[in-house]
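In this supplementary section we document a worked example of the pipeline. Step one takes a protein sequence of length 107 as its only input; no multiple sequence alignment statistics are reported here. Step two produces a three-dimensional model, which step three serialises into structure tokens for compact storage. The input and output of this example are shown verbatim.
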Amino acid sequence: MKKVKSLTLSAPAQIPDSLRPFFQEYKFEDLHPAQHGELVIERTLAYGNRVEIRWLFDTYGAAQITAWLARFGAQRLPWRRYNLWCVLLELPPAQRLRPEANRIWPY
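The serialised model returned by step three reads:
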């Protein structure tokens, strides 16, 4: 069994119920912000509104979110959202993992 790395939380937290639609394939009550932090960060950055984003930053802190974005963002976030977060968190400009010429779908 693979050991799960827990993220450090800035504040005691429970995932807001308004994020429930973004975790349809999981039993929402079983998700814990520390144990499932990478998943929670991914879905909230991709689909969260302002209130949910504020909760995310209050819970995990900007340093952990920035580190997650630098490590996983290009693979796990929609491209437009990834670019937005790179600008907002002052990360280097985003680069596609696959050049335009090698992409199957040209759009």
